[in-house]
Each structure stands twice: as structure tokens, then as C-alpha cells.
Fold this sequence. Notes:
This protein is α+β, with helices and mostly antiparallel strands. The protein contains 17 helices and 19 strands.
Amino acid sequence: EDPKKRGKDVCGYPLSIFFIVVNEFCERFSYYGMRAVLVLYFKYFLQWDEDLATSIYHTFVALCYLTPILGAIVADSWLGKFKTIVYLSIVYTIGQVAMAVSAVHDITDSNRDGTPDNMTFHVALSMVGLFLIALGTGGIKPCVAAFGGDQFSEHQDKQRRTFFSVFYLCINGGSLLSTIITPILRGQECGIYSQQKCYSLAFGVPAALMVVALVVFIVGSGMYYKAEPEGNIMLDVCKCIGFAINNRYRHRSNQYPRRQHWMDWAEEKYDKLLIAQIKMVLKVLFLYIPLPMFWTLFDQKGSRWTLQATTMNGYFGKLVIQPDQMQIFNPILILTLVPIMDSVIYPLIKKCGFNFTPLKRMTVGMFLAAMAFVCAALVQVEIDKTLPVFPSASQSQLKLLNMGSSAVTVNLPGNESLTLNAAQVCLCNVIFSQTQDLTCKPGQGNNEIRFVNGMNMPVNVTTSAVDLGLIEPFYYSTYSTIKNGETKFSLLSGSQSCEYIKDFGFGGSYTFFIPSTFVFGPDCQDSITVVEDIEPNSVHMALQIPQYFFITAGEVMFSVTGLEFSYSQAPSNMKAVLQAGWLFTVAIGNFIVLIVAEIAKLPNKWAEYVLFASLLVLVCIIFSTMAYFYTYIDPSEIEDQFSKKVDEDEDDKDKREKAEIKMVRRDSAESYDDSYKQSNM
């Protein structure tokens, strides 16, 4: 009886795998949905600067790629895959709930102004949540796919291959949908006492999906085949390498003969086949040394590139794209480019007679990623041209507003005299200041607006979302936040009223001046003077598409090919070791972002993009040199040679034993004859 037959088959597939597929889709939706809005949560909710937000974001991503090693060891050596998935999914769910709670601003907003009063509470809770999420998502990452593969019998190879295809389709599907949906949820406004961007909902939906993932997985428990833990090959590899290093150190003097490879010092304790397999793995891991630099650039699409998109125009016709939604181009392009590369590009290159080896593909992929950052730098240069120029440390900014009905000449010390017409504003950089103004560009694509009342009567200004209050004569309102799109303002003074309509873009700042000659009525729209204090975002988000194309093409040529190459060059029982090494390069790459961001401290973002591109080009040259001297091997052939040698040694041993037996028998016969002769005598 097949021990894996725990439940019914549906269309030739074990029923249990449907629970696993649904679980994976919900989990990936939960992870990528939370991660899509994470850097904006850091910047706008926790009010961190861009460097700190980027650093914490990449620390979290690095932890997500370090914990799979721990999860694999726990599953294979102690708990088994099923229990590991269940226990760590519970940890994962608690982390997602903690993130959702940390984003509820009303918890500590005692004065109800929309801003948390105890930011330490929100920071601490979010950091605990992110740690639990990293432990959960990383810990189950190496277990779920393998657990799904365990459900198939030996005669279901075709169904197993189809399962893995559907499994990875669910990963991309969950990523794509969540990257579309959670930024939309974030863009909504919610709150008990005051309405703010709804980060709690953007984190709450992924938390709910993680609860669904956990429940669905547990429901299928009775149908699963649960293999017992059989030990983890990574532990055996680490022990063997440790013994070889220790043994070599103890025999470091010249009186001991040198050995061909330093791993040969493990022969006293470990099997020669295992040592040979580890040598093959180490040869591939040596090529991994330059690889983290690729991930340094690649994972910044969720941090630096998202922050870059916040300073851009997101109007695509009538459709408005949120800055964190630009990441959807990555999964879309992956699903498009992978079949094109496999069925068109690679065969065409081969037909042209060019030997496009896996290592050459990886080199080109690294170069394409560098080109993506060159594109990002060019986009940033265009963005910088539209950003406001604020006064330097030795200057202040003075705004002059003529609220009268006739021109005024103004003389300022150290500046040429200027003439201000009626209802006109002038901006000057001088060595003194009389008023306080905006010191940065409005965030999250919002607009900041204020009204100045130049009449001798008070005016009340309201909108459907914001009440600017009563503005006294010859006075101004405080800045209020207005979302993009069309807004209708209602101006009231006694029984008189005026409807004023303005269409706002992203990230602008405006002063609306009500002149002394203002007349209420149906034609009041043209009487109000609009001063653009800060230009709205004018560089279109579509300019980011080329950099997403290059980074995704680089990912397809680098990541997909890299895993394929690694698996082809490693023994069958060492795939997990290479998977751990590959994930480790991703983690190191994210740590490099922290180092460069903290050490470089470049004043211009475009210069930082150029720095990262230059570093990757340098690493690309180093990697191509290493690849040039690499010799491709066939691990199965080497293993067969060892097996054949072991068989020959066993045959020789059997022959020697048989020869010894024959010799013993002959000696016994001769001694018997001698004894017989002596007795006759």
C-alpha cells in the first residue's frame, strides 16, 4: 500500500495539494501586499527620513532571506515540514496583526489631530511585527514547496511537475494582485477621530489573508502525507567542512605531507564521496561571492524607486497610479519575458552560433541591472529640475504679497528695488525672514493650500474634506492638505457666497489670494489670484517603466539562469545547500544597501544611483573574469565514477577474502595429510 495515499485523488492529483496551493497564494499575497507599502509607512506614518526608511526596509528584507536556512534545519532535523509550517505560520500571522495595529493612529492620538502622540509605541510594535513576519515567511519558505512535492507518489512525476508550475504561478499571482490592491487601500482615508491615510487597512487585509492561509492549511491536515525528519544535509556539510579545517590546522607543520585539496583533510572521518560532493558545491559557492551586488540594486525597486515615484505624476489618462503600484511592472514583465527569453531570444542567439552559456547570461543580467539604475539616475535628474529651491543655511525666504489695489515699489537691503502690481506675489531669498512657510515638498502626492483674505471683511472657506475656517480681514489661513483631483471650495461671508473649483495634481503648494476688489457671485471664479508656491509633480511615472524593464530582464537572465546553473553543477543531494547559499547572497545584498546608504551620504539621489550602477559594473567585470576560468562539470558522472570505484574496491575485497579462504582451506588440507602420514608411520 502506498503510504502517501492519505486522501482522494482529484483529476489524478492528491486532494491535499489544493489546500497547499491556496495556502501559498494567500501567504504570498500577504507578504508582498505588506511589503509594497512598507517604505511609505516608514516615511509618512512613522515620519522617518528616506535614508532611515530605506535602511530598515532592507534590514527586514535581509532577515526574510536569512531565516529560510533556520526553517530548513528545524524542519529536516526536528519538527518536520508540517509542524514547522503550522507553528511559524502562527508566528507570521501574529506579526501581520501587530503591523496592522501599529498603523492605527487613533490609539495614541490623544489630541485628535491625526498624528500619533506616542510614536515610540508605534515604532516598537511595528518592529516586533516585522521581526515575527521575517521569522515566519522565511522559515516556511523552504518547506511549503517541498511539502507539496512530498504528497505525490513515485508514479505521479507528471502531476508533480504540473504542481510546481501552478505553485510558482500562485506566487506571481499573489504578488501581482497584492501590489495592485494594497496601495489602493493605503490611499483611502480612515480613522475614528480623524481621517488619515489608511495604512492599518493596507496591513490589515494581508493579515486577514495570512489567517486564511493558516486555516486552509490546517483544514487539510488529515489528508497530508507527513514525512518524518531525516536530518539536514546542510548540518552534515558544515560538520565535514569544520572537521577538515580543524584537522588541517592540527597538521599544519611541514612534517605532514600536503594534500591535493584542503577538504581532503576530512578523509579520516568522512566518506570520500561526500567530500567530493562538497568540493563541487564549494566550487559553485565561490562564484556566488560577487552576486550580492546584483540584489543590492534589485531590491531597491521597493524602496528608493518607490520613494522616487512619490515625486512624480501618476495620471495615466483617467487612471491614477499610486507610487507603490509601479512595482506591478515587475511580476507582469516576469510573466512576459520568461517565455520570450526561453522560446525566442535564447534559441535565436544559439542559431547565430554564439555560445551563450549560463554564466554569460548571468553577466549580461548584471549589466542590465546596472543600466536600470542609469535610467533611474536620468529620471531623477529630470525630477530635480522640478523640485523647489529652498534657501541655504545662510539665507531665509521672504514672500511679498501686495494686497492693495495699486502697484507698490519695495526696497530691500542688498536687493534691487522691485515693483509689485496689485494682487501679485514675489519670492526673494534674503538674509532675514518675517514669516514661516513650507520647508519641503508636500508628501504622498498631496497638495498644500492656503487662502489669503485681502478684503476688509472675514471670509469662511470650506471644502467637502477640509474646513479652512474663518479668515479675518488681511490675514491668511494655515496650510491644509488637499488630495489630487478636482476640489470645490465654498467661500462664505454673511449671506454672500462663491463656488471656486480647482483641479489639483500631485505634490503642489498653492496660495489663493482674495483681492480687495473681490465680488461674490457666479463670476467670482476669475477674481481669485492663484500663486503656485511649489510646482506640482510634472515628471510622469511612465518614465520609470524603462528602468523596471531593464531590472526585470536582468532578473530573468540572472536569477532564473543562476538557479538553473547552480542546480546543474551540484550533486543531487546538495540542492538545499546551494539554495541556502543563493538566499544568503540576497540577504548580503540588502545589507550592502545599508552600508552604502550610511557611508556615502551623497547629497544628490541621482549620484547615488550612478554609484550603485558603477559598483555593479565593476562587480560584473570581476564575475565575468571568474566565469572565464570556470570549468563546467557533470556531477552525476563524477558520482558514478566514485560509485564505480567503490564497487571495484568491494569486488577486490571479495576476491581477496575468497583467496584467503582458499588458502586457509589448502593449508588445512595439507596439514591433515601430514598428520595422516605421521599416524601411518
